[in-house]
Amino acid sequence: MNVSCRVCRRLLRNDVIRRSLSDVTSRPNNDVTSGHSDDVREDSYDVIVVGGGHAGCEAAAASARIGCKTLLLTHKISTIGEMSCNPSLGGVGKGHLMAEVDALGGLCARMADTAGISFKVLNTNRGPAVHGPRAQIDRRLYRTAMQEELRSIDNLQILTHPVENLLISGENECIGVTTPQFPILSKCVIICTGTFLRATMFLGQKRIAGGRLKDDTSIGLADTLDRLGFKLGRLKTGTPPRIYTNNIDFTKCQKIATDEHPLPFSFVNKEVSIPAEQRFKYEMLTRTSERTKQIVLDNIEKSPFIEQDAKGPRYCPSLEAKCIRFSAIQHQVWLETEGLDCDVIYPNGLSISSPEDVQLQIVRSVPALERAEVAQWGYGVQYDYVDPRQLGRSLESRRCPGLFLAGQVNGTTGYEEAAAQGVLAGINAANKVLNRPPLLLERTNSYIGVLVDDLTSLGAPEPYRMFTSRAENRIFLRCDNADYRLTHIGHQVGSVDDVRKRILDETLENLKHAKSVLSEIPIGRPVAKFSDASTSIYKAFTAKNYNEVYERTNDIIPSNIRCLLECHRFRKRIHAEAIFDILYSNASREAYMENVNADQSIKLPKDVDYSFLGRSVLPEVIERLNFAQPDTLAAFERVPGVTPASVGFLLSRFARHNRDSRRTTARE
Fold first, then answer.
1. How far apart are CA 540 and CA 519, in angstroms?
2. Distance of CA 213 to the CA centre of its chain
3. Less packed terminus of the chain by CB within 10 Å, N or C?
4. Is the dihedral of CA 476, 479, 485, 489 positive or negative?
């Protein structure tokens, strides 16, 4: 499986490759091809992962789980798995991604169960399809757990070397990376550099090179991608000042209760790690004041970051952006604890890049924070990203085979979106090494499929965040059934072990048995909204207060089924299954899926010049199509500006092309 050192040396002696390296990856005073072939590192790898953030951790772990010799390169081992911004995971849409990463054997859900200090399922006033599990995380515990997990994985090595450039063969394939010490060869490279490509931090008028405090920017790698012809864009994000818990008057905050019986993120866990007596029972909410807005607006000229052309996150804007865009005086500020043994608060909603003295005024203008002291100033970050329309749905670059990209480097925002891309890129890099077909997840079977399809067909003109509203099939894509949808797929490609597969098989068998039994037992008395005593217990479980249904009927439920229903997760899943089975007709669901799958199954050729669409679409739409090169009719239809007329032109064009091809073949 592994490339031999002898082969590596012979490759570097090849004049064609040497010229390619010189053209593409050399920089002043850093010509990686000027040395002898003996400068090549003795080890070579199947997969190299660049970056130890959430995408990098998942990518490296997935590749190694499948059996590939994997190297994770990072600036600092101490920052692997670091939660650079808010100390939380999950939410609506994001929690769905975490469940799917876990179903594919990923790490973040199990680490969240280990380090979670409070848990709450959001959106419970809506149906179970859009429930969003979320947790406050102890930063230190999460980082430590992730690092220990990575160290325990076979086939995975971790080194602290900054990556300066990529090694590119004469066939334009990525065959490794260069570090200041030596080149390292591999069959595939996954770039997971987050917000570090040519990154600049803004603090008032100050500009500091870096993508995170105390961490350097990555200029050489950005320059390499530029020279390789990748289209790069510029995005921005920000983080709030951190505040010491001392002197915060929590009595002025609104207390929001967390879940007393938390639902674990991971399908392999029956309960979370931190005991109830140590978890936080409330989340603390305050709001900005009229004075807060006035201070921000009076000092807006001192925050040049807000005037930058780069797009910031629409759904998590800076405080400056909120004060400019919205007339509302008050904006929510959640006071999130950063850990069990930590005296620092993350004020979620106060992302600012003003000078230090202005930040202190802003903080102290918020009720409950009048006497607060700042532990770390907030700042903005501007960074390069790669237009993801240059990737296939496997997350492999179309421009440079063997090169994969995952995470914020593709224009997304958030830990969960990064982790989802990381696990998919790791699986597909391993598949490429092993000469297997790529794993292409569909919009109809996963939020990861929605995420990747949106990125590769629409791009990321602004930081992309996952919402349940992005998924057309969201009624089926629930958090609780991610294992049913994806774990068998993960087991087939090798990213899921036999233990997890066995847990899934047992769960599905128990669900099938419980549904069958409960469908045959009448409630026998009025329960919840059901007055008809002949209503089955299974149908009664569609009630919103399904826990009451269980409590009122458990005396007539067989003991073996009652034992299963005592588990909160299993009971909640029965509730979701009942709603899906009883309230949504199979016929309408199957008809919808048939239409979606029909468009998804119509494959489009590569390298199409869409100028033949003529006046059926605007010129800029043709430009988007030529750049994105959608691979299916469904992806073509999602490109902004595509019209029904252009779909008709496309279908007639390729129908005619297929007829001509068949005639040519027949004549031959």
1. 10
2. 23
3. C
4. positive
* CB distance 393 to 452 below 8 Å: yes
- Distance of alpha carbon 487 from alpha carbon 266, whole angstroms: 12
116 has which bridge partners? 137
Is the distance from CB of 210 to CB of 321 less than 8 angstroms? no
How would you list the strands of the sheet with 132-137, edge to edge?
88-90, 132-137, 116-122
Q: Helix (H, G, I), strand (E, B), or coil: what is residue 488? A: helix
| Amino acid identity for residue 525 in this structure | R
What are the residues facing 333 on neighbouring strands? 286
Distance CA 340, CA 20 (A): 52
3-state secondary structure of 547: helix
Q: By the 8 A CB rule, do 49 and 56 touch? A: yes
Identify any residues that bridge with 157 across adjacent strands, giving them in sequence order: 71
- Beta strands 156-159 and 70-73: pairing type? parallel
Nearest to 87 by CA among 150, 168, 141: 141
DSSP label of 402: T
Distance CA 383, CA 460 (A): 14
| The dihedral sign for the CA sequence 409, 414, 419, 420 | negative
Highest mean pLDDT of the ranges 152-166, 208-222, 467-481: 152-166
- Residue 187: beta bridge partners? none
SS3 276: coil
Rounded to two decimals, the pTM is: 0.86
| Nearest Cα residue to 129 out of 512, 571, 447 | 447
634-642 own/partner pairs: CB under 8 Å, 24+ apart: 634/443, 634/596, 634/599, 634/600, 634/602, 635/453, 635/456, 635/457, 635/604, 636/604, 637/599, 638/453, 638/454, 638/457, 638/458, 639/457, 639/458, 640/458, 641/617, 642/617
Enumerate helices (H) and strands (E) in the chain, giving the number of each.
22, 20
Per-residue pLDDT of 452-499, as tens digits, reads: 999 998 899 899 999 998 888 888 899 999 999 999 999 999 999 999
Q: Which of 161, 168, 162, 160 is nearest to 185 (CA)?
A: 168
The pLDDT tens digits of the residues spanning 249-280 come to 999 999 999 999 999 999 999 999 999 999 99
Q: Residue 274 has what DSSP assignment?
A: S
Sign of CA dihedral 488, 489, 492, 498: negative
Q: Is 527 helix (H, G, I), strand (E, B) or coil?
A: strand
Q: Is 394 helix (H, G, I), strand (E, B) or coil?
A: coil
Look at residue 282 and tell me whether its pLDDT is greater than 60. yes
Bridge partner list, 159: 73
Query: What integer is the mean pLDDT of 509-534?
Result: 92
- What is the residue-averaged pLDDT of the chain? 87
Please list, in sequence order, all residues whose beta carbon lies within 8 angstroms of the beta carbon of residue 456, skipping any fewer than 6 positions away.
388, 389, 391, 392, 393, 628, 635
DSSP code at position 449: H
> Is 115 within 8 Å of 137 (Cβ atoms)?
yes
Give residues with Cβ within 8 angstroms of 275, minimum separation 6.
none
- Token pair of 329, please? 């005086």
